[in-house]
Write a structure and sequence with these properties.
The complex is a heterodimer of chains A (about 675) and B (about 325). Chain A has about 675 residues and is α+β, with helices and mostly antiparallel strands. Chain A has 25 helices and 20 strands. Chain A has 3 domains: about 150 residues; about 325 residues, no CATH class; about 90 residues, no CATH class. Classes of the chains: A alpha+beta (about 675), B alpha+beta (about 325). Chain A: It holds the Pfam family Transglut_core. Chain A: This is Transglutaminase-like domain-containing protein.
């Protein structure tokens, strides 16, 4: 009896494979030592199975529990109660359970934990790849369950795998229906998700070299889909992120005098309403952005962006902020007024902020600016002549900017004359402020790549960009991009064209398909894969209660509680019945010959006059009984039974070519039998 | 209260089973006689899917919802697959051997399938029930994968002399995922005859010829005629060891010689005066076994039957059956 609870060898192997698979992607995020402990535990379990080691003693288990407690406390102190610490603790408990796994039920605990760990994997990423990987883990876990329930004498891993796949495939339709139909519930309680993943993308500080660092990465930043009919040139795609208006000589930052990002705080600061600060012209363009997790709160959009669903906060300088860091892919809808004027009346506080310069330094630039301003009459002419200066002199657009010393602006403008967009934006803004024109640096992304397979744009980290906004009397803030003056290709055709021969471009992603844009089929494959990912995101990842509601409404009109319940019941019924029929192969009905069917019909007729054929009673025994009970039927019944028996039993033994002849003979006797029927029917009437 | 309720439920269940599964020599399992409930592991699995679902709600993760639904779907399918693993399985009773009391009775059951189906990891046993609370049945395992039919012995301890009707047989499976347990309880009309439990005693009285009637005959170990070989027991005379067979590697065997004095023995009910019925039967049973081993001609007289002296396995069986059935009519 005890033996039946032991773990068979194939089941153990399946389980360990499932455990290793489920821990593998997690181990990247976990501290290294947890991975080491996990590997150690897996090896230990294998050695236990081979009889080389024993199960842990009671003492050791107590030590392990204490150790885990200490680790969890130190984790909470170090990184706080977050997803990462929870996930690594779960993993730790999980691998310790392995060496304690003695009985079949322990395996079920481990398999259940496998499913929980798979769920944790989805918290980090919901990409197509992750989904496929989790599907693999689920299949292996099912294989472990099957192997566990097979007789230990059977070692048929192929069959186990096939059965696991079969059950998974059969479970899929039901899963899809549940996914579509089961009512989604809003979160029960808010759980802040803290992950230790480093933030990516444009940040709220910009020093020389920061943006060029991003240009080395070919990671996706976000995807954009415009509503139909919108045609924008590459040069118009300025994805505005943050406004940096404080400069300390090295780094541009957001001014910290107002810490809150919220509208309420900025309104208190300005004492002027949001609507009064903007003037829009023309129709807005609408689009949807799917932002990859940045671990930062700010969003990107075309200036001047308005949040369609009113989910986000608007910053002082018309930036958009999410409520909390973006830890998962975020999809949002925006409406942008491409033609706009903002802050035509500039408040003093704002003017002071955007005129501020660090004390001392960069004298040559100051001198150059004052000289240039004196030679033209208006502020706008001055700005254009600075751009002309960049255009006409030997300035280079490159990722490998020389290192700069104390007076960064001076050295860049007059000595090195080579830099990336942040150098140009920074020095341009500095030159503006030097002569009393309010100016600020804006960071975000510029440009995009269109995906021909699905109608959307892809923006990569190497699209990161910095430019300037300058304030003119009566016009408000106007965008100036000094990089465009140096390298028009960058703005009109994109960064790939501009940096085609720069070895540092995308050097972090040496094997990224985007690097091989020149190779046709590879590039097509990259675009197609991205299109699949995009569709996946639109159809599956974004499927929430709102989308579900819309779908219901589109299909069934107004959504009522009764309708939802009816729909769910019907669909569940249909699916269960359908699945049931495929799983339970209903036995084929007994094939009856025409002669058999005829005989059974006669029996039914006889049953109506109380001559019921008993269970297991043969035709001859039945005939004899009828002859005894109802002599008037004897003749007809005897002849009929004789024919039937001869045809049915004697005829059956004949095989091969003779069968055809027999069949014809059967047909003629069948016709003869039919003539007997009225006699029987008549008897029934009299009887 | 709870206990009595449970008892009442069990009783009802037993009655229901008895009504719906009358004894039959051959039974094909179908939806009318297969029961399915989740196992403890199945409940754990469902609980885990609940956890995943709650996490999906809280973190608003679409694919975690999908995972939770997949787990539920897998569970539902495991119900169907467990059912499928028993459905259309045909059980029929096969011949059974008689046993001695306090030995394990082996009931042979034939399992067969239709060629399209597979039945794996089947467990057969006699469950404890209120009718037979102390069934000491061991579970037999089998697969019906490679061959169309399989014969399985299901063992249970024979505790009482006489006609032994096996309780209902339970066929159980947790295949394929172990989340559900599907079973059926069938009455295959399994019978076997239980002989009295042999109680050894010194059979010296036969040597003296003092018991029974005047024509009682005995045989005893002698030295005249070669009779056969038996295994060596420590203490035996080394002179009788068959050294030739030792040299052939057949182990130590002893040559046996007997003197045929008179080979007719009568076993009599009254030989064991002072014992009760079962004790008498047990001793008679022992005598029959011993005498049949040595090839004697023996007869038996018990109330209700007289069996003239004879020899051979058929005779032995006849006598043992008579002892087993004693008092049953």
């Amino acid at each position: 009896m005890e033996l039946s609870y032991q773990i068979p060898r194939p089941a153990l192997i399946w389980t360990l494979v499932a455990v290793v698979l489920v821990l593998l992607p997690q181990s990247i995020r976990m501290p290294i030592w947890i991975g080491v402990v996990a590997l150690f535990c897996v090896c230990w379990r294998v050695l236990i199975h081979n009889g080389k080691l024993n199960y842990p003693s009671r003492k050791l288990r107590v030590v392990v529990v204490l150790f885990t407690l200490i680790v969890s406390f130190s984790q909470i102190r170090n990184i706080g109660i977050g997803l990462d610490s929870a996930a690594s603790l779960l993993a730790l408990g999980f691998v310790f359970k392995l060496i304690e796994m003695r009985h079949k039920r322990d395996i079920y605990v481990v398999i259940s934990l496998c499913f929980v760990m798979s769920m944790v994997a989805f918290l980090y990423s919901q990409s197509v790849l992750t989904t496929l990987y989790v599907a693999l883990v689920v299949a292996v876990a099912m294989g472990a369950m099957i192997a566990l329930n097979r007789s230990s004498s059977v070692v048929d891993n192929r069959g186990t795998a096939r059965l696991a796949m079969k059950i998974a495939a059969q479970a899929l339709p039901l899963t899809i229906v549940l996914f579509l139909v089961f009512p989604r519930i809003a979160p029960l309680w808010a759980v802040p998700m803290q992950t230790g993943v480093n933030s990516t993308g444009v940040t709220d500080e910009m020093s020389p070299g920061d943006i060029s660092q991003l240009a080395r990465s070919a990671e996706l930043a976000f995807r954009v889909q415009f509503e139909d009919g919108v045609e924008l040139t590459h040069g118009q795609l300025y994805w505005r992120g943050l406004v940096l208006d404080h400069f300390d000589g090295v780094t541009w930052r957001r001014s910290r005098n107002s810490s809150a990002y919220s509208v309420a705080a900025s309104l208190a600061d300005f004492r002027i309403s949001y609507d009064d600060r903007i003037r829009t012209l023309g129709e807005p363009v609408s689009y949807n952005v799917i932002l990859e997790p940045t671990q930062q709160p700010w969003l990107f959009g075309l200036h001047l962006a308005e949040d369609v669903n009113d989910e986000f906060f608007s910053g002082r300088n018309f930036e958009l902020f999410n409520n909390g860091r973006i830890t998962q892919r975020l999809s949002y809808d925006l409406r942008s007024y491409m033609q706009n004027q903002t802050d035509v009346l500039l408040l003093d506080s704002s003017r002071n902020r955007t005129l501020e310069l660090p004390d001392g330094g960069n004298e040559r630039s100051l001198e150059f600016a004052i000289g240039l301003r004196a030679s033209v009459s208006t502020d706008r002419e001055y700005a254009n002549s600075v751009l002309a200066h960049f255009r006409q002199n030997q300035y280079f657009y490159t990722l490998n900017a020389p290192l700069l010393g104390e007076n960064r602006i001076d050295e860049f403008l007059f000595d090195t004359m080579a830099g990336f967009c942040e150098h140009y934006a920074s020095s341009f803004t500095y030159l503006m402020r030097s002569v009393g024109i309010p100016a600020r640096v804006v960071v975000g992304y510029q440009g995009a790549e269109a995906n021909p397979y699905e109608n959307y744009l892809m923006v990569y980290q190497y699209n990161a960009h910095a430019w300037s906004e300058v304030w003119f009397e009566g016009e408000g803030w106007v965008r100036f991009d000094p990089t465009g003056a140096v390298s028009p290709t960058r703005i009109e055709l994109g960064v790939q064209e501009a940096l085609r021969n720069d070895p540092a471009f995308m050097e972090d992603d040496l094997f990224s398909a985007a690097r091989f844009g020149g190779i046709g089929w590879l590039n097509a494959m990259r675009l197609r894969l991205d299109a699949i990912e995009y569709e996946w995101n639109q159809l599956v990842v974004n499927y929430d209660e709102d989308v579900q509601f819309e779908l219901f409404e589109r299909l069934f009109g107004e959504v009522t509680e009764q309708k939802v319940i009816m729909l769910m019941a019907t669909l569940a019924f249909i699916v269960i019945v359908a699945v049931g029929f495929t799983v339970i192969n209903i036995e084929p009905r007994i094939q009856r010959t025409p002669i058999d069917r005829f005989y059974l019909r006669v029996c039914r007729e006889l049953a109506k006059i109380n001559l019921v054929r008993r269970r297991g009673e043969g035709p001859i025994a039945f005939k004899d009984r009828i002859c005894a009970e109802r002599p008037e039927l004897a003749d007809a019944m005897a002849e009929l039974t004789d024919m039937y028996v001869k045809l049915n039993y004697v005829g059956k033994s004949v095989s091969g070519a003779e069968q055809k002849n027999e069949m014809q003979a059967l047909q003629t006797v069948y016709a003869k039998l039919k003539t007997k029927m009225p006699a029987l029917a008549g008897l029934r009437r009299t009887g | 209260m709870a206990f009595s309720l449970r008892e009442a439920l069990t009783k009802n269940y037993q009655r229901w089973i008895a009504k719906n599964n009358p004894p039959r020599d051959q039974i094909t399992l179908n939806r009318k006689n297969i029961f399915i409930v989740p196992t403890r592991n199945g409940l754990l699995f469902i609980f885990t899917s609940g956890l995943v679902f709650i996490a999906a709600i809280n973190y608003a993760v679409s694919l975690a919802f999908a995972l939770a639904f997949l787990m539920v779907s897998i569970f539902i399918l495991s119900i169907l697959h467990s059912f499928n693993n028993l459905n259309q399985l045909t059980l029929s009773s096969s011949s059974t051997q008689d046993v001695f009391c306090a030995e394990e009775a082996c009931f042979r059951v034939q399992l067969s399938r239709s060629p399209k189906r597979r039945h794996e990891s089947l467990e057969l046993n006699f469950p404890n029930s209120s009718a037979s609370p102390t069934m000491n049945s061991t579970t037999s395992y089998t697969d019906l994968a490679a061959r169309d039919t399989e014969e399985v012995g299901v063992f249970t301890l024979a505790t009482k002399r006489g006609e032994f009707k096996a309780p209902r047989l339970r066929v159980l499976t947790r295949f394929p995922l172990g989340l559900c347990r599907a079973w059926s309880v069938v009455d295959l009309n399994l019978h076997c005859l239980v002989y009295p439990r042999p109680v050894p005693f010194s059979m010296n009285q036969f040597d003296s010829g003092a018991s029974g009637g005047s024509d009682t005959a005995i045989s005893r170990e002698g030295s005249e005629d070669f009779y056969g070989l038996r295994d060596y027991v420590p203490g035996d005379s080394l002179r009788q060891v068959a050294w030739k067979s030792v040299a052939r590697g057949q182990g130590m065997q002893l040559k046996q010689f007997v003197d045929y004095v008179d080979n007719k023995i009568w076993l009599d009910w009254d030989m064991f005066y002072g014992f009760n019925v079962e004790e008498r039967l047990s001793r008679l049973c022992y005598c029959v076994i011993q005498l049949s081993k040595t090839g004697n001609v023996y007869g038996m007289r018990i109330p209700g039957g007289e069996y003239p002296p004879a020899t051979g396995p058929d005779h032995r069986k006849k006598l043992l059956r008579a002892l087993a059935r004693f008092g049953a009519e």
